[in-house]
UniProtKB/TrEMBL annotation:
Residues 9-153 form the Mycothiol-dependent maleylpyruvate isomerase metal-binding domain. It comes from Gordonia phosphorivorans. Pfam families: MDMPI_N. This is Maleylpyruvate isomerase N-terminal domain-containing protein. One of its GO terms (molecular function) is isomerase activity. Keywords: Isomerase.
Amino acid sequence: MTTTLTTFTAAAQGFSSLVHTIPSDAWDGPGLGEWDLRSLVGHTVRAMTTVVQYLDRPAAVVDVDSAAEYYSRARAAVASGAITGIVERGREAGRALGPDPVATVDAQVVEVLEKLDDGADRPILVAGDMGMRLHDYLPTRTFELAVHSLDIAAAAGLAFELPPAVLAETTVLAARIAVELGSGVQVLTALSGRADLPSGFSVV
């Protein structure tokens, strides 16, 4: 049975496998936007380190009811300036990968999966001290691992395929974020071949 834990696990393991194929001379090359590839990988690793951190922060109240709402709130916080420093945190995470980034990524996958254990649902405090249930938060981390794995593969010129369950979950989440943002009709008409999405359209 596919669960939020199994798709997160598959995304994390797929990301780790991809990192193993990055050429040694590509790490300092282009990644995404202002990030070099090392920074992009470091930023992606944060999809696991945040889970490790937040599992130690139980929440008394659930403030965010879904992964789509989480992204809607995050987008609004970035737009308002309440969230800043994303680029620099990615660079810091890239530097933290150390001299053997592949080994660092492998170790982080092991750590987060051990920390999750059986993946029992529970309320945790996530970024911004918002309470979320683990099973609502994990899909946001699967989404980050999946999307940025594709970014990494594109930047390094590598062949990479997401596990089908990961691709299905993240695609559905992208559509739900669009609905949350009021762009559901645009996405539906585009996916059904009725219209094109505007240039630069994004749900995140």
